[in-house]
Each structure stands twice: as C-alpha cells, then as structure tokens.
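Homework-ish question, so no full write-ups if that breaks the rules, but can someone show me the predicted structure for this set?
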Amino acid sequence: MNVNATEPKRPVITRRLDRMFLALADVAAFVARFFREVFVPPYEFREVIRQCFEVGVRSLPLISLTGFITGIVFTNQSRPSLAEFGATSWLPSLISIALVRALGPLVTALICAGRVSSNIGAELGSMRVTEQIDAMEVSATNPFKFLVVSRVLATSFMVPILVMYTVFVGLMGAYINVHQNEETSFPTFIEQVFDAVSFLDIFSSVIKSIVFGFTIGLVGCYKGYHSSKGTEGVGRAANSSVVTSMFLIFIEEVLILQIVQAIRSSG
Amino acid sequence: MKTYQPPIDKEKTVITIRNLRVSFGDLHVLRGVDLDLYQGENLVVLGRSGTGKSVLIKVLVGLLKADSGSVNVLGQDVSRLTPRELDTLRLKIGFSFQNSALYDSMTVRENLEFPLIRNVRNLSRDEINRSVEEVLDDVGLLQAINQMPSELSGGQRKRIGIARTLILKPDIMLYDEPTAGLDPITSGDINDLINEVQERHHTSSIIITHDLTCARTVGDRITMLLDGQFQRTGTFDEVFSGPSDERVQQFYDYNFVENKSTV
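A: Not a homework solution, just the prediction itself:
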C-alpha cells in the first residue's frame, strides 16, 4: 500500500527545505563521526603517509608552476600603480603581504580542490559503486577510518605545507621580476619581505590552510562515500566535490578574514 | 549434477533466520523469510533479479539492517552485536561479491594480504607470503600474484575474490551471483571451485544465483525466493519436479528449454 497516497501534497519549498536540513544533518553526522574515529585506535599511520604523498608530492608540479606564475604576474600587474606614486620599492612588501595573507592559501586551496578533492570523490565513489567499501567492511576493516580519516588528515597536514611552498615559489617569481626591473638584490628583497609580514599574518595563514585542507578532504570523502547510481554517480561525486569545496573555501576565506581583521583592529 | 556428497550435519545449523523482513521505503523486499543453513551444506537461493537475494546475504553480515525478525549466525544474533563483535563474526564469514570487489589500487598480492595483515597479528613476512601463495594455488591463479585487478579477466577476478575470502579460513561462505556475466565454460570452472572450497575447507555456503546450471552443480539444497518469501525448498529435483507452480516452471523453462545451450 502506498502510504503517501492519502497525504496532502506539500509545497515544493517545504520539501526542498526538508531535503536541505536532512542533508545538513547527514553532513554533521559525517563530521562528528570523523572526530569520533580520529582519536580511537587502531591508527592508520601507513595509509595517512601514503595519502600525504598522494596529496603533497603529486601536487608539487602544478603548485610550483602556478605559484611561480602568480608571483611574476602579480608583481607585473602591481608595478604600474605603485610607479605612479614613485613607490615601486614597496613591491616586495606588497607582494609578500598579498601572498602570505590571501594569494598563497587561496591559490593552493583552489588547485587542491580541483586536483585532490575531485580525485578523492571519484576514487571513493568508484569504490562505493563497485562494492569495494562493502568488501572492506565485511573483512572486518573499518572503511571510514581507513579511507575517510586517513584522507582528511592527509589534506589537513599537506595543504598548509603546500601553502608555504606556494608562498616561497611565488616570492621567487616575484624576486626575478623585481630584480630584472628594479635591480633589487636578494638580501634586500628578503629583508623587505620579512619586515612586512607579521606573526599574525603567518599564523592566520596556517590556520586558514588547515581549515581549507580539512574542507577539501572532507568534501571529497563525503561526496565519494555517499556516491550512488553507478558510474554516473562517480562523475557526479567528482564534480560536486570540486564545486562544493571551492564554494566553501571562498566562504571560509571571508569568515576567517573578518576574524583576523577583528583581532588586528583590537590589537 | 553434483558428484561430491558432503557430510552434512542436519542436527547443527550455522545460520538460522526467522520471520526476516526487510524493506526500502514502500518496497517490501523480504516478507517474513525463514531459513536454516546446516553445517557443511551448500544452499542455493534462486530467484529473479530484484527479488532480494543479495539483500538476504547482506543482512547476514550486517551490511544491511532488517526491519524485524531474527538472524542467528554461528550462534550469535547479528542485530544485537556491538561493532567489535560483528567484526569478529565477520572474520568467520567469507563474502564473495557479484563484481568481485577487488581493490583496484592494489595488486593481487596486496588484495589478498589486506584482510590477513589487518586481522591476524604477529604474522611474519614469510607466513603472509605462504598464506597468499597457498590460496592463490587453491584457485589456480598463482601466476597472477603481481598483476593488477584491471589486467584480469572476469573469471580470474571472481577466483581472486574467492581467494581473498578464503585467506581468513572462514566457516561460512556467501557467494553473490558467482557465475553472473561469465561464459558457460568459465561458469563451470567457478562452479567446480565452489565445490572444491566446500570439500577442502569444509565450509557451509549460501550461493545466490539465477543460474540453474550453477544451482544444480553446486547445491545440496535449493530454495526459491518468490514474492519476498521462500516458496520451495529441497533438492534440485524436489524443487523442479514437485507440484507445478507457474513461476517455478517458468524459471526452469527459461534456463533449460528456451536456453538449450546450457543443458
């Protein structure tokens, strides 16, 4: 018997709200399960290290290229505006603040969202639809701990390291450009970079990167782990991982910026 | 026909299911199923696609939850076990998936080592290697030890899937559509392997299939799942030579009359 046959049809908006709140509850349960399982042995050290390699080392070529080009392009684009005020000597300070506070974390996180989150979404999605996750479960292995916890930890560890690397490579790109045009020496460039950047800048950048890394890993895992509807679902999980990660990264960027500015103005 | 006659202990059941009900929303898949699996026997569950055969064995290992009824495996009520107790029970059950479910990112060796390393402590490298080679030899695929799953044929994948379950020396084997998608010759090989596993490892098994050749070759007892309940249970001849039932007859005719090549 169809029990819904006698129920009055509800408006579309309430059904959508229902679905949205159910999805939010599901995400909250997923996050809660992560924090519950991350502290409980057995710990999957080997898998975490393997995933760190996948996330970190395999992202290096793309990160290197993007960071380097970002440094060069940003320096080039900033020069005319500063030159109008005769302030091109401020270029190293400007670039270092921009790279540490915003460009480094954001560029790295967006690249990782595209490369890592989609990869995780597709991999776990494919494992779900081919019953590999079920196979793990019936062989008495906790698939959540093995697959999800290890990947989220790996992205949370590696994204901050990649951000530092991006900032370094970006500064090198900027130095080459500054050196060619202003003939600034390397020690002077580095001195200006470190003078401009405060502890709060670096600290907030690291915290932000950890949040971005956690988001990238968690979204990819959530989308992949709950994938369904065969190969179509795998593609959808990969795509949705990228879109959702990027969307959340921008929201987090704005929120963290507000918090850091509040701290800065109060200090 | 099955040539090996296993010593079946009808006094001892390894799986007992009573009044099992499972539904997905409004879809009632299992509607009060009762089943006993005796020690040492191969029980074949026949039925059309979508009748809930796979759901039944997934409930047995706790992958799906029942709405009501009791499922007792090796003396333990599956619905009342803690996650740790359920994991301990799962080590005694081998589950061979329809699509083999081999881990794509691992070699055959790593696939086989995975359950062993994670569940058996203090094993030396030599012991692990020996166990892996032993089960691969059992399924006749020792030469595939360093291959990736993507390099294997459908039949080979099925064999490796079975080997992966055998490495933990289970008491019960659950086969989900072991011959689905295979040609008749490879299907015959898989059927022989299922009988060999029963003979060598003294397992009790449930085989889910809609392939009557498989049912006749491996089954000591056969039961038909129709409309969410078991309608006929007995030997192959008892099920298909008993009082006529249109759906049972239709099932037989499709396999052995319309599809004469499989006879």
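Now go work out the reasoning yourself. Hint: The longest helix of chain A spans residues 143-182.
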